[in-house]
Amino acid sequence: MTNTRQHYPTDVSNKAWKVIKKLLPVASGNGRPREYALREIVNAIFYVARGGIAWRMLPHDLPPWSLTYYYYWHWKKAGVWEAVNAELVELSRKKTGRRKQPSLGILDSQSVKTANGGEERGIDGNKKINGRKRHVVTDSVGHLLAVKVTAANVSDQEGGRQVLTALSKPPAAGGRREQGEDGQRQYRMAKILVDSAYQGLIALAMLLFGWVLEVVHRPEGTKGFVVQRKRWEAPVRRGWLNGFTPGKAAIGV
Fold first, then answer.
1. Among 14, 146, 172, 253, which residue has the fewest nearby CB atoms (within 10 Å)?
2. Nearest to residue 6, comparing CAs of 38, 47, 35, 67?
3. Cβ pair 36, 215 in contact under 8 A
4. Angle at the Cα of 15 (from 5 to 44), degrees rounded to 5?
5. Distances from the Cα of 135 to the Cαs of 148, 154, 157, 181, 235, in angstroms?
6. E-assigned strands of 45-204?
7. Where in the chain are the domains?
8. DSSP 32-71
9. What is the fold, at CATH topology level, of the domain defined by 99-250?
């Protein structure tokens, strides 16, 4: 289909499309020819994600919502979005003079209120929040490395175990992305900074992944919010996610 529509701010740039298109699963060659270019499908997905709208509210000059929704979930199951994020993180780190793979990570969690039901919803007894909990791992400059969403009543220790497991696995993306030397995504990871809620994971992280979990304690005698060494990056990333909460909900995160 010839693309004569207006440009949207969420449209993929030429530079970004070069990264994304090589990570999309290869078509089987069966079935009828595509009516819409894959780049337009990606543009439609990003429009929903950034705008925080329902799928059915996609503008008529973008691919149909049902087709867009199908590709989103198909690529989600194939690990495309994890692969795209990992690739962009590597490019960003390389651009700033760092090695592609981080050796230091920061793990943190945040409970957020949700209006929708479903299994991934509960009450965080400590923070009195009814909703979901995001367990996030970033590198030392705030790049998102892994995220796991659970019900808010899931303990930090269990959620931390799940997100560390996700961090250890290479993004699949239909098998089109090269893996690390030992088959893991973060094969340079050596240490992850955490707060005391994750202290019970120290032995498990070393046993399963060979990672050191270092607990960063609040300085004695301090009250309220205190910026802690390096761990500031994860809360910054959480704040960034808060700004995208409607869009995240719209695409199923």
1. 14
2. 47
3. no
4. 40
5. 5, 10, 10, 26, 11
6. 104-113, 122-124, 129-139, 144-151, 191-194
7. 14-77, 99-250
8. SPPSS-HHHHHHHHHHHHHHT--GGG--TTSPPHHHHHHH
9. Nucleotidyltransferase; domain 5 (3.30.420)
Number of Cβ within 10 Å of residue 91's Cβ equals: 13
Determine the longest span between alpha carbons in the chain, in angstroms: 68
Both tokens assigned to 226: 């205190």
Asked if 173 and 152 count as a contact pair (C-beta separation under 8 A), the reply is no
Is 144's pLDDT higher than 80? yes
Measure Cα distances from 137 to 45, 144, 148 in Å. 24, 6, 9
pLDDT, tens only, 19-61 = 899 888 876 656 555 778 999 999 999 999 988 899 999 999 9
